[in-house]
Design goal:
- This protein is an alpha/beta fold.
- It has a single domain, classed as Alpha-Beta Barrel (TIM Barrel).
- It contains 10 helices and 10 strands.
- The strands form 3 sheets. Strands 3, 4, 5, 8 and 9 form a 5-stranded parallel β-sheet that branches. A 3-stranded parallel β-sheet has the order 1-7-6, with helices on one face. The protein has a two-stranded antiparallel sheet with strand order 2-10.
- Helix 3 packs parallel to helix 9.
């Protein structure tokens, strides 16, 4: 059967299958962990070794003027905390939302100036972006130690750069490929199911801001996981309450 002859639902299924395959091969944290030793394992975090049912929800690419407030409303409703990996550009454009994130007990991490692939930057530009964003963050949060590169991928040079400025690189362990699935194809069922099937104590969940679909996913996973005994905490709290990283 040719793709051109498929209906919309079938095309959506084919696209989601293709995205899942590519994502699994390139971005699955379990596979990435096989190569971590080559780029500095002591400062790259996939998850935490927790005996308690604690998880860290991380939200990339914000703050967004309309979606982030909705995310914050849901987190407050379910008494959940999160870590927001913010871009410098969006911090400058949405200062009041950054203040609200901090005021409501969440924390922020460094996601460079934009969400483009940081590993493609020249060393000098990568350092400039890291420090510019760092200075913007510390205007709201006195210290920050969490770094996630734009695009979610790192290498030895980028890892050493972030570590030299006091950061640990957070990759995460539950990535439902939400950034790879166009919103017009839906995907919230797949994303929700992926998180539900892969969650574990000490997990770090990765979702993306600026998408109304993220709201629908959170409306599903927050009550479900809370009812299952999970507590959503910031990365810093998860770090403090666990001893060993995996």
């Amino acid at each position: 059967m040719f793709v051109g002859s498929l209906n919309l639902n079938q095309k959506s299924a084919v696209l989601l299958g293709f995205i899942f395959l590519i994502g699994f091969l390139l971005l699955n944290p379990k596979l990435i962990s096989l190569f971590i030793h080559q780029i500095g394992p002591n400062h790259i975090i996939l998850s935490f070794d927790s005996k308690e049912k604690l998880v860290a929800l991380t939200i990339d690419d914000g703050p967004h003027p309309t979606i982030t407030p909705l995310i914050l409303d849901l987190l407050k409703k379910h008494q959940a905390k999160a870590t927001f990996f913010l871009t410098g550009k969006n911090i400058q454009e949405n200062p009041e939302i950054v203040k609200r994130i901090i005021d409501e007990g969440h924390e922020i991490g460094n996601h460079m100036q934009d969400h483009n692939f940081s590993i493609l930057l020249e060393a000098s530009e990568a350092e400039d972006q890291l420090l510019i964003t760092h200075n913007l963050i510390t205007a709201y949060q006195p210290s920050t130690k969490w770094f996630r590169p734009g695009g979610g991928l790192t290498d030895r040079a980028l890892n050493e750069l972030s570590h030299s400025h006091g950061y640990s690189t957070v990759i995460g362990s539950v990535y439902p490929f939400d950034a790879l699935i166009p919103e017009e194809y839906g995907g919230e069922y797949f994303i929700t199911r992926y998180i539900d099937r892969n969650i574990h104590p000490g997990a770090i969940i990765i979702l993306h801001d600026g998408r109304i679909r993220t709201i629908r996913v959170l409306e599903n996973i927050l009550p479900t996981l809370v009812n299952d005994g999970y507590q959503f905490v910031t990365l810093s709290e998860l770090d403090e309450r666990t001893k060993n990283r995996s």
